Amino acid sequence: MTRFLPSLNQEHTGQPSKKNWVWLLVVLGALIFIVSVALFFGSRSEKELESLQAQIEGKILDLRAPMSGLVQSVNVREGQKIARGQVILVYDDSRLRLDYLEALAGYQAAIQGFDPGLPDAIQLNQTLDEIRLEIQRLRQIEQTAQQDIEHWTIVQARALLALRTPGASAPAQDQAVLDETEAGNHLDQARQQHENAVNNRQQAENRLQSLQQMSGNVSGQELVELWLARCRQAEQSLTAASLLAPEAGRITLINIQPENQTIHGDVVLSYIPDGFVQENYWVTAVFATENLADLKPGLPCRVETDTVKCRGQISGISIEQDHVLVKIQLDQSTNPDKLYIGQLARVFAALP
């Protein structure tokens, strides 16, 4: 009986080869990895509730214009941190300085008026003459501004008429648009100049009338006291010509630019004060209605934004029509420099 010996190239079928063992280990490792990842994320999703949407919010305070006038410069920008006492903006104080110098001259003249060799009437008359000259100058500015208003009103009317003319060529239409825009800009400037001149003239006339009454109705000592009061009032007005930061913080919004006019009390900028993060910043998050039973005040949360990861806890819950609104108080360790109002966030509420 003939026996056939196995070939050297033939593998034994009873035992797996080394190559098969390698593939078996690779497949087994991949299965273990997939199962581990699934268990990790499954357990994580069971222990945390993720918000549908969320954003950073904060306590915003307003700074208001201390006076009415023309803004000369704005010395800060949005997002900038400011220190207590820092100059925020400066007004054009040329008129205020003249008022102060006038009051100071009147005060000095009133004091010198006690010297028989230099009667206070002489100094007072000089001041009255200066005010009369100022009134004349303001009237000229007022008249010039009125003429400019009339001129540019006519130019604007012609441009509007050209725009409404049927069949006008494209170049004519383009030129009419340019003319109307230019006329509108000049009209705004002329009206502003006219308004300023009228206001300043009326103030000067009121001062003239007041001084004329004062010169004939008060004694020398009373004149000194009146001029001293005006000096103090002028000093206060000069001080108000610079708006200072009342406390340290970070600017979120600026509503004014150089060469803008402000009215006393207008909001010129908004800022978030420095201090405790828990007082100045919080997160408002939206959760699904079915999560209401799991959301409790004091529940720890993770907060993630594009600039910071921090922690906090639920401080308030509001039930809305189709969702749950949750307020999260941030931990004190949160860096406020990496937060800004309106910043989008993700909130993960940790379930017990």
Could you characterize what this model shows?
With 352 residues, the protein is of the alpha+beta class. The model is unreliable at 1-12 and 114-119 (pLDDT under 50). Among the domains are: 49-59 and 275-350, Elongation Factor Tu (Ef-tu), domain 3 (Beta Barrel); 94-239, Helix Hairpins (Orthogonal Bundle). Helix 2 packs antiparallel against helix 3 (120-163), helix 2 (94-112) runs antiparallel to helix 5 and helix 3 (120-163) packs antiparallel against helix 4. The protein contains six helices and 15 strands. The protein has helices spanning 18-47, 94-112, 120-163, 170-217, 220-240, 277-280; strands spanning 48-50, 53-58, 61-64, 69-74, 81-82, 87-91, 242-244, 249-254, 261-262, 267-273, 281-287, 300-304, 309-319, 324-330, 344-350. The strands form three sheets. A six-stranded antiparallel β-barrel has the order 2-11-14-13-12-15. Helix content is 47%, strand content 23%.
